[in-house]
Amino acid sequence: MERPKRQICPRCLRASLACICACVHQVQSQTEVLILQHPAETKHVKGSARLLHLCLPNSAIMIAEVFDEAELKQTLERDEKQSVLLYPETTGLPTVSKFLKQESNAIRLVVIDASWRHSRQMLLKNPLLQRLPRYALREVPASRYQIRHAYADDQLSTLEACTYALMQLESDASKFEALLHSFDAFNQMQIEFGVNNLLRDKRK
């Protein structure tokens, strides 16, 4: 007997049983956000990038390990905004400190959604990303992740890292608290349902 197909939420693209739309609290950011997601992350029910995208109307998400260079270049340079990469600083590479004096609506924050190993691979395989000025987070709170293991307190989810960057870039922490509330609701929803149940549903 053929197993019935899962119902998929057209908004969050998750199984209806695991829909996260109720967790979404939208925030209008001046800073444009571009999320570059590794394909492996699309399979993780614990991932926060889709929630982040739904919470930020001024955001876009692209999924690939190696992006089409012409398409990525057009996205990064399509207007007068300065694209900056949210990533730890590396000696010899430009940082974004000089851009902080600009209006936040003149900045496009590029966020990689991937494991550390995959994020390094994405940098190596996409030279355009290597050349972007970097914005590195400092002095941020410990992660609020309850459903995914972090190996250190400063290892944040994609949503958390982007939220703290936006708080700093726009000098308005209270405005972006709603994103953290969305993340807390996302964690709690999966704890109450049972993350293992969500993983089993994902495999059906």
Task: Describe this protein's structure.
The protein is of the alpha/beta class and 204 residues long. The protein has a domain at 28-84 and 104-135 and 155-184. It has seven helices and five strands. The chain has a five-stranded parallel beta sheet, with helices on one face. Helix 1 links the parallel strand 1 and strand 2 (59-63). The longest helix is centred in the last third of the chain and has 17 residues, at 177-193. The protein is globular, with a radius of gyration of 17 Å.
Keywords, separated by commas or semicolons:
7 helices; 204 residues; alpha/beta; five-stranded parallel beta sheet
Write the layout of secondary structure elements.
Elements: E1 32-37, H1 49-55, E2 59-63, H2 69-77, E3 82-86, E4 107-113, H3 116-125, H4 127-130, E5 134-135, H5 158-169, H6 177-193, H7 195-203
Count of separate DSSP helical elements? 7
Mean pLDDT: 85
Give me the Rg, rounded. Answer: 17 Å
CA-based shape = globular
Q: State the end-to-end distance.
A: 14 Å
Portion of residues in helices? Answer: 25-40%
SS content category: alpha/beta
Low-confidence stretches: 198-204
How many strands, what sense, and barrel or not for the largest sheet? 5 strands, parallel
Strand order of the main beta sheet, please?
2-1-4-3-5
Write a brief caption for the model.
With 204 residues, the chain is of the alpha/beta class. Helix content is 33%, strand content 12%.
